[in-house]
Amino acid sequence: MDNRFPDISAEQATTQLIEEQFLSAPVGRKSDNSTVYVNFPYQLLVEGLAETLPKDRVVIEILENANPDGKLLETVKRLHNGGFRIALDDFVPGSEWDSFMPYVNVIKFDIRNCSRDEISQFIRSNRDLLRHTVLLAEKVETYDEFESYKKMGFNLFQGYFFSKPVVTKRNKLVQNRAFALKLMQEVNVESPNLNKIEDLLKRDVSLSFKIMRYAQNILYNTRGISGFRNQSLRDVVVYLGISEMRRFVLVACLTSFEEVSNTEIYYLSLIRAKFCELLAARTSENNAINDAFMVGLFSLLDVILGLPLDELLEQITVSPEVAKALQSNSGELYLYLRLARLYEQRIWKEANEVAAQLGLPNALVSELMNQATKWADELPISTSR
Fold first, then answer.
1. What pLDDT is stored for residue 288 in this prediction?
2. Of 273, 219, 222, 280, nearest to 249 (Cα)?
3. Are strands 58-62 and 36-40 parallel, antiparallel or unpaired?
4. Is the dihedral of CA 144, 149, 153, 154 positive or negative?
5. For the chain, give me the number of helices (H) and strands (E)?
6. 39 phi and psi angles, rounded to 5 deg
7. Residue 4: pLDDT band by 50, 70, 90 thresholds?
């Protein structure tokens, strides 16, 4: 509840994590292909605890303070031969782990503890030794760091960069982004023109395909029948209705942008959008529900497009309440977004306070977050992940 690592041993922390992640059946993503990285102290490794875990779901992390002796090397060889993936955590460039390298799948560099030059020099000097190893950068906090380590050959990243806005120069929108924002604007006017919407959709083959697939999925799930085999795009627009069209366009346009730094940001945006909508449905009048969805979805728009939020909001039509939440961090809509962010960061004390301010019990808020996560998993258009 204090949002900090508890005063317990590394051994106790690992065993507790194993119990929570693998024995308590938590709610996860649909068809979960994600990997759990588990820190293992030296003693638990050599005692064989790692071998009790599902090897297709975990990466066994060897802690930085482990002694790279013969006993540990034999354990790592056994795990490797058994199909487990091994990672060296908080790796410091040096030669003491060279004998382990043929059995190591991932090396994690804490870029706050080692300089960029040190890491680059180690990689250049050990290319043959590292040829089958995935490089992971920890504590990535800026766009410059993300790009720099990506160019250096890193494939995996952790850090605050993925949930913080990126400061960029004020660039002119390229054509595909301008088009997408125009479509988002058109569906959100007070009286949308279906002819204009249809015309804009026809200009983008990808969006045309996605909306047909989206409508087909809804029809199948709600009525258990297939349809739209010979229907026009206009038929699909009419069938969905303006509310569903708004949702489709907002989500589909964001997931169609090119050159995005990380597709996980899309996924986070989708969860926020649905979570904010579900909160609004419990606490506000119906006219706030769509605005709540937009606040969540647009909360990372500046990161996705690499442009300042103020400039982006000038180019689309949003309600004053949405703009207030995103630009001023105020208003009821902002409370929904704040609660989403607190949940993402596991700041439970403040999350509970905001939930109480909204008049919602903690158990319900947790369930709404689970619903939002499942919804984001099941979207038929989020294929870029």
1. 82
2. 273
3. parallel
4. negative
5. 17, 6
6. -70, 130
7. low
Residue 159 DSSP code: S
Give exposure, 342-353, as e/b (b: 16+ Cβ within 10 Å): bbeeebeeebbe
Helix (H, G, I), strand (E, B) or coil at 121: helix
Q: What is the edge-to-edge ordering of all strands in the sheet holding 58-62?
A: 36-40, 58-62, 85-88, 106-110, 134-138, 156-157
pTM for this predicted structure: 0.50
**Nearest in space to 319 (alpha carbons), one of 279, 276, 288, 281:** 288
CA atoms within 13 Å, Cβ hemisphere of 129: 14
Exposure letters 139-162 (e unless 16+ CB within 10 A, then b): bbeebebbebbbeeebebbebebb
Burial of 219 (0-12, 13-18, 19+ CB in 10 A): middle
Which helix (H) or strand (E) segment holds residue 298: the answer is helix 289-298
